[in-house]
Amino acid sequence: MDERARIRAHLARFSRDEAWLASDDLFAGGVLDSMMAVELVAFLEKAFSITLDDADLELANFRSVAGMLGLVERKRAR
Amino acid sequence: MTTQPPDAPATRLDLTPVEAAHQASFLDFVEAEIAPYAGQFEASASVPPELVRGLAEQGYLASFVPEKAGGAGHPMIVHGLLQAALAGGSASVQSLSTVHGMVAVAVLRWGSGELKERFLAPLARGALLGAFALTEPGAGSDAQAIETTAVADGDSFLLTGQKRWVSFGQIADLFLVFARGDDGPTAFLVPWDAEGLTITRSPLTLGLRAGMLADLDLQGCRVARENLVGRAGFGLSHVAASALDLGRYSVAWASLGIAEVAFAATVKHASERRQRGVALASHQLVQRRLTDASTLLDAARLLCLRAGVRREAREPGAIADTLTAKYFASRAARQIADHAVQLHGAEGLSDEHPVQRYFRDARVMEIIEGSSEVLEILIAEHALAEHRAARGPEIT
User: Fold this and answer.
1) Which residues are CB-neighbours of A46 under 8 A, at least 6 positions away?
2) Segment B69-75 mean pLDDT
3) B204 and B283 fall within a common domain
4) Do the domain assignments include residue B8?
5) Residue B24: per-residue pLDDT
6) What percent of chain B is modeled with pLDDT above 90?
């Protein structure tokens, strides 16, 4: 499973609605709550062997699959 | 015979020898320094400063902070065993470890390099005591309803609002305060002597009566911009959520600790006390209570251990496992303590016997760091998420 598919598979835990999965603001509409937000952080760290910190707390890094892929790529490049 | 996939988390049913040695050491400390005096702590509604110093010297405050950051570097299961041991002696004392740990983990997880430099090692050493200030008169389980405001003013923020039921707020050096700013909920480290902060004692509660609760009145309380934890707008979703996750883990194990001492007291009493010419434990209605308590205790212990194993493996599912452990263990502790009080009869109602304190403290565990009702919502959501995940292959 490629990285995009892994992220989408994790997000599908919260909603399988394709429009939501493809949206550019996953936090709109209240699908994700705070527990899911920290679970998402834990998932990204475990799945892609990265460690997130305060500098990564930008909404753009989490509100779309593309944003998360970009975050993973940047963290790996450091 | 089935085989575990290579990335499956380890599961086990008991402690390693190293963990068991830590546990024995914790229990020795509690037996000598805490348990004999727990009633006195309650009577004075305080934990003596020399005990707080003793806990700090032992590395028992925020024991999970890595050694390189100044902490004891306890793995999560050892940290859990410490919470259970402390709560078995005094749940009030243990609650200091809970809230202090929640502040430390917020700094460890989301603090800037500068914040970690300034505060992490002192928190890990117990040179600074932390307290968690989220609850307000109008915002308890619904943290999104906080009304405390943060207004930018040059290199500072001015915080205005009320915080309630801040455990160990009477002696804390540093508060983790949540306030609503232009970018959304935000977390700040506020020193106890900050300009515009007034600290008063909260009313005494049913349990954790030595928890030294305080209310905070923030009136334009000035906080330096560099004391912001995480980023503006991420105060609840990440900072508070990470702190509460650890808090729930601590409360789960603390509940287990209460359950263990309540059960031990019950078995001892039922074995020694004679009624109608035989030991209390010979009566089948008593045996039913012992069976219920024993089963609940075993299940609580296994759920705490599972959460610990998966936290150590950094499994994302550990967050949900922690919810389940806290939910079950806190309820189990209350039920086991209820059996203890019932079987001790009038003696169990006396303030000269600890079982009534176990019962009152266990009752609090069902409310703090996420009430059972909130956890029921979250655990159900997780169960539904697992169901959706099981249908994952349809997602491309």
Assistant:
1) B314, B315, B316
2) 95
3) no
4) no
5) 98
6) 91
The answer to whether residue B39 is domain-embedded is: yes
Q: Do B391 and A16 meet the contact criterion of CB atoms below 8 Å apart?
A: yes
Per-domain residue ranges of chain A = 3-77
This prediction has a pTM of: 0.95
Chain A residues closer than 8 Å to B146 by CB = none
What is the rounded distance in angstroms from the CA atom of residue A72 to the CA atom of residue B264? Answer: 50
Domain containing residue B217: CATH number: 2.40.110.10
Q: Is 50 exceeded by the pLDDT of residue B187?
A: yes
Q: Distance (Å) from the C-alpha of residue B257 to the closest C-alpha of chain A?
A: 26
Q: How far apart are CA B226 and CA B26, in angstroms?
A: 37
Tell me, yes or no, whether B269 and B167 share the same domain: no
Question: Which amino acids of B are annotated catalytic?
Answer: 369
- Which among B232, B260, B293 is the end of a domain? B232
pLDDT digit string, tens, across residues B308-347: 999 999 999 999 999 999 999 999 999 999 999 999 999 9
Helices (H), A1-78: 3-11, 18-21, 34-48, 65-77
**Backbone dihedral angles phi then psi of residue B201, each to the nearest 5 degrees:** -70, 140
Q: How far apart are CA B259 and CA B331, in angstroms?
A: 10
Residues B90, B93: Cα–Cα separation, whole Å: 5
Residue A32 binned pLDDT confidence (cut-offs 50, 70, 90)? confident
Show which of B188, B216, B232 is a domain's final residue.
B232
How confident is residue B2, by pLDDT bands cut at 50, 70 and 90?
very low
B108, B110, B231, B237: best to mutate for the A interface, most A CBs within 10 A = B237
Query: Superfamily assignment of A3-77 in CATH?
Result: ACP-like (1.10.1200.10)
